[in-house]
Design goal:
This protein has seven helices and ten strands. The chain has 257 residues and is of the alpha/beta class. The protein has one domain: Metal-dependent hydrolases (TIM Barrel, Alpha-Beta Barrel), CATH 3.20.20. The strands form three sheets. It has a five-stranded parallel sheet with strand order 1-2-3-4-5. It has a three-stranded parallel sheet with strand order 6-9-10. The protein has a two-stranded antiparallel ribbon with strand order 7-8. The protein binds zinc ion (ZN) (2 copies).
Length: 257
């Protein structure tokens, strides 16, 4: 794995370290491409522990642009944002994209404010989650779907509509050629009892069994909220055990189009 497009900064309020520490850790870990994708700011909305503020935007861009220049001989820095997709914000996403290299969609809530999927995701919310991810993929604005099985974070059983939602996401990802991310940071929650068996919340095997039935590109994403997470390559081994023997197409050295 020589490319990671999922990296946060302190600006979102729940990640630690300086921007330069992430760059140095990525170089030490052997990455050739480091993509920053901090939680995007939303105008007029201040969510201190979750999202960058609008007033952080210029500093985010200028700081990363300076690091890109400083370390250009050692690593290729890409600048992006992680968004939740809501159709009424399409113009906002387009403006962000004018200033950045790419967007990833990490759908943490089925409604704009509140109602996090990590609290509990009922089937209606999971249906909405699937709808929004399919719309994000079809919008042409996002380059990667982060943790597409994120809804399992607020579940202790596979939902009745889980297969159908997974098929819809995988079908759209294959059709629009948007990679699905096997997220390496879900492991931090440890294992839980899910449907009577201990399992990590995500990646969740059942979801990826369905993905494997579609011609989808999969990539790993570190989802670093701490610089040294970039050096924890053993996370790849653990998720590979979870996904063992599934015929997934995992591109370790993925390049953005
Ligand atoms: Zn985060
Ligand atoms: Zn993230």
């Amino acid at each position: 794995m020589d490319a990671n497009y999922h990296t946060h900064t302190y600006r979102c309020g729940h990640a630690r370290g300086s921007d330069e520490q992430y760059v140095k850790a990525a170089i030490d870990a052997g990455f050739k491409i480091l993509g920053f994708s901090d939680h995007a700011p939303y105008k007029g909305i201040h969510i201190p522990s979750d999202r960058m503020d609008m007033e952080h935007l210029e500093g985010y861009l200028s700081c990363l642009e300076a690091l890109r220049e400083k370390y250009r001989d050692q690593i290729d820095i890409k600048i992006g944002f992680e968004i939740e997709y809501f159709p009424f914000l399409v113009d906002h996403y387009k403006k962000l994209l004018e200033r950045a290299d790419y967007l990833i969609v990490g759908q943490h809530n089925p409604t704009f404010l509140d109602n996090d999927l990590d609290l509990y995701a009922g089937e209606a919310e999971i249906e909405t989650y699937g709808d929004l991810i399919v719309q994000a993929i079809e919008s042409g604005l996002v380059s990667i779907v982060a943790h597409p099985d994120y809804f399992m974070v607020g579940r202790r059983s596979w939902p009745a509509n889980g297969d159908a939602v997974a098929h819809r996401i995988a079908e759209a990802a294959a059709r629009c050629q948007v990679p699905l991310e096997i997220n390496l940071n879900g492991l931090r929650y440890g294992t839980k009892m899910i449907d009577g068996q201990t399992a990590h919340l995500y990646p969740y095997r059942r979801f990826w069994e369905i993905v494997a039935q579609h011609p989808v590109t999969c990539i790993y994403g570190v989802d670093a909220h701490h610089p040294t997470t970039l050096m924890e390559k053993e996370r790849v081994l653990t998720v590979n055990q979870i996904l063992a023997d599934l015929p997934l197409t995992i591109i370790e050295n993925y390049r953005l189009p």
